[in-house]
Design brief:
Rossmann fold; 12 helices; single chain; oxidoreductase; 3-stranded mixed sheet; 12 strands; NAD(P)-bd_dom_sf; 2 domains; UDP-galactose 4-epimerase, domain 1; NAD(P)H dehydrogenase (quinone) activity; alpha/beta; EC 1.6.5.2; 281 residues; 7-stranded parallel sheet; 18% strand; binds NADP nicotinamide-adenine-dinucleotide phosphate
Length: 281
């Protein structure tokens, strides 16, 4: 089976590509927007194709002789602007006779989820379901990784300010998400299902305590309002309210979701937040 991963030069794609090379996943190639971002090591190990999610023909060409496309969406927002990516994915997959799509989605996608990107994920999954194509839908929980860079700011502030109230959030590392995806690629009988790659669930008080231990200074949970949070992180414009909408979902209990899919797929436990930060901070 010929496999093509899109978004390979991004945060998650880099983890998946490195693990695919390490695990000797057969016939694994990558589709990238900017070939200059691809290291010589990767060029020696993999076939690299060029594609742009907003250029249908580039996707048709990149998908030639590919059986399975693993699609990592971009991070553009709002939802409406991202819709053409998945439309072009389905169009190109049909023209190029791709047999199967693995779509990498996000867990903030319930029908009542206020996250501003939720409409995109709802649309993408329904488009795949109605496309006639074979597909695997992988939802992921929230990344642990950005907290590594954010921790110095929080330590300076002495506060964790996420506007989540008593809500809890399930976190997983990008490394573990990639590990779950590689496990599916390693046993193709696992294709065709809907998965949630989740890790451990924390209240913000628990998270603040972990952050304090790792930073070596006291960080209390002291939430700001959704509006304040949105204004604090509104760079680029619109990103602050988008982030705030995600924390609103958490305050509603919508990001506590957990499944045992990671354990079932990999036979391992996902990394805890404390261990992840100790290794990476
Ligand atoms: N779980 C979480 O907490 C979390 C957090 C943030 C985002 N996400 C989700 O994760 C996915 C993105 O993954 P990421 O974290 O790896 O983000 P990322 O680092 O921005 O990676 C996105 C990838 O998509 C590629 N891309 C963007 N526009 C493209 C286009 N027009 N044509 C072809 N390729 C294009 C980028 O290419 P370049 O390398 O050339 O830029 C990059 O490789 C998104 O679906 C996002 O919703 C999840």
């Amino acid at each position: 089976m010929q496999i093509l991963l899109t978004g390979a030069t991004g945060h998650l794609g880099t983890h998946i590509t490195n693990q695919a090379i390490k695990q000797n996943i057969e016939n694994f190639s990558i589709g990238v927007r900017n070939i200059n971002k691809v290291s010589d090591t990767w060029k020696q190990a993999l076939e690299v194709r060029e594609l742009d999610y907003f250029n249908q023909e580039s996707m048709v060409t990149a998908f030639k002789n590919i059986d399975l496309v693993i699609f990592i969406p971009s991070i553009i927002h709002p939802s409406y602007n991202r819709l053409p990516e998945v439309e072009n994915l389905v169009y190109a997959a049909k023209i190029a006779n791709v047999n199967h799509i693995m779509f990498i989605g996000y867990y903030a996608d319930q029908y009542n989820n206020p996250f501003h990107m939720s409409p995109y994920f709802g649309y993408a999954e329904r488009l795949l379901a109605s496309s006639g194509l074979n597909y695997t839908y992988v939802r992921m929980a929230m990344y642990m990784d950005p907290l590594v860079d954010y921790l110095p700011e929080l330590a300076e502030l002495g506060k964790l300010i996420y506007p989540v109230g008593d809500g809890k959030i399930n976190y997983i590392s990008r490394h573990d998400i990639a590990k779950g995806i590689i496990a599916i690629l390693s046993n193709q009988n696992l294709l065709g299902q809907r998965y949630l790659l989740s890790g451990h669930t924390y209240s913000m008080t628990e998270l603040a305590s972990i952050l304090s231990n790792v930073a070596g200074s006291k960080i209390n949970y002291d939430p700001v309002s959704l509006d304040t949070f949105g204004k604090m992180y509104d760079e680029p414009k619109g990103f602050g309210p988008l982030l705030a909408s995600m924390y609103k979902a958490a305050s509603m209990g919508l990001l506590e979701q957990h499944s045992s899919d990671f354990e079932k797929l990999t036979g391992d436990q996902p990394e805890t937040f404390e261990h992840f930060l100790q290794q990476n901070y």
